[in-house]
Amino acid sequence: MELLKSDKIKIDILKVLSKNEDELSMNLLRKKIGLVNYNSLVRNCEFLYLIEFINIDVKTIEGRKYYFISITDSGIEHLKLINRVQE
What we know:
This protein is α+β, with helices and mostly antiparallel strands and about 90 residues long. It is about 55% helix and about 20% strand. A hairpin with a 2-residue loop joins strand 2 and strand 3. It is globular, with a radius of gyration of 13 Å.
């Protein structure tokens, strides 16, 4: 069975976040994943947030909203399961 492109993006998001101890801004996350449309990244992050695999913190800096993303313990555990299945 082949994964959809959006599923691969979700897995990539979890992988990048699991390698970073600190939260990442949405733009920095996009740069680390590479070749992903910003709107597509936002939709995938919203889905991962709904199933509690990531946290999204909104911070206002100089009057602008910035979104910072971090992985949850549940996200780390499920990423381990995904990696086992893909091997």
